[in-house]
Design a protein that fits this description.
By secondary structure, this protein is of the alpha/beta class. It has 16 helices and eleven strands. It folds into two domains: about 130 residues, Rossmann fold; about 150 residues, Rossmann fold (3-Layer(aba) Sandwich). The chain has a five-stranded parallel sheet with strand order 2-1-7-8-9. Strand 8, helix 12 and strand 9 form a beta-alpha-beta unit. Helix 1 runs parallel beside helix 12 and helix 8 crosses helix 13.
Length: about 375
Amino acid sequence: MKSGLMTDARAWLDKIRALEFDHTIKIMNVCGGHERSITQAGLRGALPTWLELVPGPGCPVCVCPEEDVYQAMQLALKDKVILVAFGDMLRVPVNVKKGEVRSLAEAQAAGADVRPIASPLDARKIALEHPDQPVVFFAAGFETTTAPVAAILAEGLPDNLSILLSGRLTWPAVAMLLDSGTPGFDALVAPGHVSTIMGPEEWGFVVDQHAIPAAVAGFEPESLLASFYSVLRQLKSGEPFLDNCYREVAHSGGNPTARRMLDETMDIVDANWRGIGIIPRSGYALKSAFAKHDARLLFPDHTDPSRRRAGEMPPGCDCAQVVLGKIYPNQCRIYGMACTPRNPVGPCMVSDEGACRIWWSSGVRETVDA
């Protein structure tokens, strides 16, 4: 961290420490990148004991429907496609009988052509290099990674490339928590990257409909601390508003080109979140104009409705509760015991944006009761 940033971070910490609350205040951060920055910088240990930072639904890998991962595996195993996906998706486990293939990585080990990619452009490149083979891009992610998928759709795909889309919108999960009446947090720090695409004002409903303080934050400690101070001051004054502590990147209206491409190529639909269920208007689906590139229409549906616990978290896994901010990662019943990054049971221990993986990688080994 640069010395100037250190000074800014210390200044924000001093401002926060100067505030006094006689009860616990919980701030939810809705971004895996935020959680990684908070944990790696040791911000929890530097903040007053009355302030708790709650990781929320900020990991797209963690909420990707189990049946979508299963479908991708079967396409690679049975339909002999070249299956490409972002690297984190390869180790996400599904619920199958012992001894069966339970992840894309295991499908790859069993002979399927599964390839990790870093960008949608990689999917196009692989399709162009193998024009005689079907290539399926398993595209899971939030708005930030779904927008580049929309871009390659708008620009035109090779005939042999199709998309198994599992895109999700971030804000509906927060809206669901707030509408439940027991959200479990007093203020919200909204995701910077999503706000860069969709615009900070997308989070105005938190204030307008629920009178809960909110601030958009970047990923440096000083931006995060500035957002914490902002929402704490709002709580003190009793006058909540939506603050933007990431002004250099997140501008009003977001990225108009990205939003236009999303609107032109995708519909917003009700969607399933793993372990949570259907959240209204929380998912992306390809528009009918792109049917010839929709893997859901081009290939058989391999989802077997008789599979036990299909769509749920594995037995003993509390990832859904972690994603919703109901418990902390080390309050999961199998955290650090049956479930570790080397042998993940739940998706929150797989992804670099999963709270369990972040906490474990940062040295949190002690488990506590929920």
